[in-house]
Design a protein that fits this description.
heterodimer, A: alpha+beta, six-stranded antiparallel β-sheet, 11 helices, elongated, B: about 75% helix, binds protoporphyrin IX containing FE
């Protein structure tokens, strides 16, 4: 580093200015402007501004429903607020974390981060290679300094000071001929930690981005006893990252052997009916490999290569049999019903295409049936205490023009509702308990609920950014602890030979304890400390060093002489 | 399963803690008032003495008053009068000591309440908002009590006991949740780690915010040159600022760890480590704002005072995350345990 001004020596700061906005002349060419912009962007003040902006920008995403989190809620929000929603949508309020303005904030922050890390790293490497700076001429100017007199030779005192500092793992500036000074520094790890932290933050952002680009997720409902074979076409929903090919999805089959779900039945209040146990047993087969049984649960995903399978949701599937007028079975299957609330009141549809015209049943499934005067038919408990399937029936073409539709509902437009035989103005409806069968009106046959099984909602996910993100987060934490925990300190010692005892009464120091009367202490020693940033322990450190030196030269009572102030925190 | 007797005992312990904390708060407030006026008188006397001695210094201007404060303001090991105070227990200190002893009592009561709650449900008491509040107050009181054993922190008592009382009161009155088991998603070792550290970090942030408020008040008075009343019972602004920063640099890495542990848990429970759920979003916002505080402190052009305001903004976010986000926003993290 170049010639230092005295004031320069009094600060441990990188020569790299934290606020570089003032650099640059008034008349700038194109290059000048580019450089000026770069400096603006990489100044710490801008970084701070961007950080605060990022925090602010993240908030709307917690206030408005997000498409990426719950698209259905966005739709219902738009229905409830028809005037406001289009405007919010235009501003990206339903896709905050994928919106251009959110991205521009963190991209600018990343650029700023890079622009900050590079010069700092270069500088830190230089600092590690360099020696601690020279001892300043006037140690009294440093924020913390202590002075005393020792009954020892200057050479011994100097050697003791060097030994003390070396013992405290300070890096010492090499001795210079004849100079009775020591310059020492430690805590380089603070800056290493700082750089590690900022680099690791960058690493986390890049990992998350990579996971998004190269990852995929698929969702599928599997009924107990059913087997699911993975593949691009076999998921209920499949979201592929922009750089993923459908053929990258591994092929395996999974049979859901058993699903164990239990609910709170003892506690009252809000806890009543909360889920308590939720786990399943699955058998997985990869290619021609052996079939392996395995248990999985919430918090305990299954692993197939680098793909994880999570058990996330569950519900009921009543096993329904429909017979035609001749008693022939035209439909027999477990039909998945979708839970609508915490008590698992579920809705769904039975679509019978084996008859002409088609028969469609819609309605609700209630694991513990209750007729509430206000809510109507509902479920009072999520477990199967008194299950009932309540349906109304329609007739007609269920899939006009083969349009795709939800498996949980029927588009009743164009269908004809079945009415009761006795009262043609009242719609026909059935309430079935397990094992019950009811005749359909007009001799169309019968419908029976044989039993009820459960289904599990599975999420299959591949995210290559997951592990790198974890590693970088760990590194960021380590860097943070170093940056905030390690103290960067410089300590300077000046030994003063031939120190003459000041005449009695002179000087402003009130302390009178400088040695026994008649004994001239002839070596003066000043220890001064300089810390980077806030360092309440500096006074203590300087005092300890002074005491240690005094003990080392065999004059343990000398310290404290000029100490007027201590323990400031 | 749940044991109603233990749960009831826990409730009694918490009520006891609330009552004792209220008394402690009272004692600490009296302590501040009495110490403040005593110190003010002493500072005035010192200034008058200096004038009498006729030192060539500029008389009784505010800077000099602050100078007098300097000597008295810290824990005054250097100052014989203060030390005598400590030994003989002048009225000013006595009130503070009473406050501290009551705080210790309340700490045991809250800890007892938390432990009994845990025993009653045979699990870590970290399953709902009521239990988070108990945990936060336990940690905050333990940290303060231990700190006060080692250093003179009587002046800080009111700043810590006050928020603790508010949190406990709110927990008892509006977030109370009956003791019961966990839902399966919460039954995970990472939950225990994540929430324990979150609660610990929150407790440190509470004390950090208390110090920040003390600093800002004292700093304003010092800049105006009118350190009077109970404010003169506080340490100097620079010392308060250092303590504020010290508290935050412990809390911030813990919060960083909280966010990471939460992401690990979310990965296992929901199949993604980050999904911008409201709770996750707010944890992130809190993290960024506190990072901005640390940054602001090191940025030229930002005073420590301005930086401290950023820390307080972070604390407001923390409170919002605890209250509004838990109770109003729907997300996957809906286990406040409070029925709406
Ligand atoms: C993702 C964005 C960032 C985060 C979360 C972040 C966070 C932090 C934190 C927590 C500190 C600790 C402050 C302390 O020592 O008390 C710090 C220090 C620092 N950061 Fe950043 N930072 C970010 C971006 C940046 C950028 C873009 C720059 C460059 C302009 C930068 C430059 C610095 C510097 C120079 C320090 C050291 C301050 C000192 O000397 O004590 N940071 N950062």
């Amino acid at each position: 580093m170049s010639a230092r001004l005295p004031t320069d020596e009094q600060r441990i700061e990188p020569a790299y200015p934290k606020d570089r906005t003032t650099i640059g002349g008034p008349r700038l060419g194109l290059v000048g402007w580019v450089r000026w912009t770069w400096r603006q962007l990489t100044s710490m003040r801008t970084a701070l501004f961007l950080l605060l902006l990022l925090a602010l920008a993240a908030i709307p995403g917690s206030i408005f429903p997000q498409r990426g989190v719950d698209a259905a809620r966005v739709r219902s929000y738009a229905e409830d607020n028809p005037d406001l929603a289009p405007w919010l949508d235009r501003l990206g309020m339903f896709d905050v974390y994928a919106s251009p303005w959110f991205a521009s904030i963190y991209l600018l922050l990343m650029v700023s981060l890079v622009g900050c890390i590079i010069p700092r790293t270069r500088q830190h490497v230089e600092a590690i290679r360099a020696q601690p700076p020279r001892t300043p001429r006037r140690l009294e100017r440093l924020p913390v300094h202590r002075h005393t007199r020792l009954d020892a030779t200057p050479q011994d005192t100097l050697a003791a000071a060097r030994a003390t500092l070396a013992g405290r793992r300070f890096r010492l500036r090499p001795e210079e001929d004849g100079a009775l000074v020591v310059a020492a520094e430690k805590g380089y790890l603070k800056e290493s930690g700082n750089i590690l932290f900022h680099v690791a933050i960058l690493g986390v952002i890049v990992s998350v981005g990579a996971g998004h680009l190269l990852g995929w997720r698929g969702e599928i409902i599997v009924k107990e006893g059913e087997t699911f074979t993975s593949g691009a076409g076999s998921f209920d929903t499949l979201r592929l990252g922009p750089l993923v090919d459908e053929r990258d999805i591994p092929v395996f089959s999974l049979r859901l052997d058993d699903l164990d779900v239990q609910f709170e039945s003892e506690a009252q209040g809000a806890q009543f009916g909360q889920p308590r146990v939720f786990r399943g047993i699955a058998t997985i087969q990869r290619g021609d490999g052996p079939a392996l049984g395995d248990e999985f649960a919430v918090n305990q995903p299954l692993q197939v290569d680098s793909t994880s399978i999570y058990l996330l949701g569950n519900g009921y599937a009543p096993v329904v049999t429909v017979r035609d007028g001749a008693g022939e079975i035209v439909f027999q299957d477990a039909v998945t019903f979708l839970p609508q609330d915490n008590t698992y009141s579920s809705s769904g549809a039975v679509k019978v295409t084996g008859t002409e015209p088609n028969l469609g049943f819609v309605g609700g499934f209630f694991p513990t049936f209750a007729a509430d005067p206000v809510l109507g038919m509902t479920s009072s408990f999520p477990d199967l205490v008194d299950p009932a399937l309540v349906l109304t029936a329609f007739e007609g073409d269920l899939f006009p023009e083969g349009r795709p539709q939800s498996v949980f509902s029927i588009e009743t437009e164009g269908l004809e509702q079945l009415m009761q035989d006795e009262d043609p103005d009242t719609p026909f409806s059935v309430a079935l308990r397990p094992g019950q069968s009811v005749e359909l009106p007009g001799g169309r046959g019968s419908i029976e609920m044989e039993s009820v099984i459960r289904w599990g909602g599975l999420l299959v996910r591949h995210d290559p950014g997951r592990l790198p993100a974890l590693v970088f987060s760990g590194l960021a934490l380590a860097g943070l602890v170093l940056m905030l925990g390690v103290r960067r300190r410089r300590v300077f010692v000046r030994v003063d030979p031939g120190y003459s005892v000041p005449p009695a009464g002179a000087g402003g120091t009130p302390a009178g304890g400088d040695g026994a009367p008649g004994e001239a202490r002839h070596t003066g020693i000043t220890v001064a400390g300089l810390a980077k940033g806030t360092d309440p322990g500096m006074d203590e450190l300087v005092e300890e060093i002074l005491a240690q030196v005094a003990v080392a030269v065999g004059d343990p009572h000398a310290t404290g002489a000029d100490t007027t102030e201590k323990d400031r925190l | 399963m749940t044991d109603p007797t233990l749960a009831l005992a826990s409730d009694y312990a918490v009520w006891t803690a609330i009552v004792v904390l209220a008394l402690a708060l009272l004692a600490f407030c009296v302590h501040l008032a009495v110490t403040g006026s005593a110190r003010e008188r002493r500072a005035d006397r010192l200034v008058r003495e200096r004038e009498r001695v006729g030192a060539a210094v500029g008389g009784a201007d505010p800077a000099d008053r602050a100078g007098a404060d300097d000597v008295l303001g810290d824990h005054g090991r250097a100052h014989p009068t203060r030390e005598a105070d400590a030994r003989t227990g002048t009225p000013s200190r006595r009130w503070g000591v009473v406050g501290l002893q009551l705080t210790w009592l309340a700490t045991f009561a809250v800890l007892g309440g938390t432990v009994l709650r845990a025993l009653s449900v045979s699990r870590a008491p970290l399953g709902n908002m009521y239990e988070f509040a108990l945990g936060t107050v336990s940690f905050a009181l333990v940290i303060y009590s231990v700190w006060a054993l080692r250093k003179d922190r009587l002046w800080l008592g009111a700043f810590v006991v006050g928020p603790a009382l508010v949190i406990l009161g709110a927990a008892k009155l509006s977030w109370y949740t009956e003791a019961s088991q966990l839902m399966p998603a919460l039954d995970n070792i990472w939950l225990v780690i994540h929430v324990t550290i979150a609660v610990l970090a929150t407790a440190l942030f509470v004390i950090g915010a208390a110090l920040a408020v003390a600093y800002l008040l004292r700093d304003r008075a010092e800049r105006r040159g009118e350190v009077s009343g109970w404010l003169s019972a506080l340490p100097r602004a620079t010392a308060l600022e250092r303590m504020t920063y010290g508290m935050h640099i412990v809390a911030f890495p813990l919060w960083t760890f909280t966010v990471i542990a939460g992401a690990i848990w979310a990965e296992q429970a929901w199949g993604r480590y980050w999904g911008w759920d409201p709770k996750e979003t707010w944890s992130f916002v809190i993290w960024v704002v506190y990072a901005a505080y640390l940054h602001a402190r090191a940025t030229t052009g930002w005073s420590t005072r301005q930086a401290t305001w950023v820390a307080l903004v972070g604390f407001v976010c923390l409170i919002l995350n605890y209250t509004a986000v838990n109770l109003l926003m729907t997300g996957l993290h809906s286990y406040s345990g409070v029925s709406t």
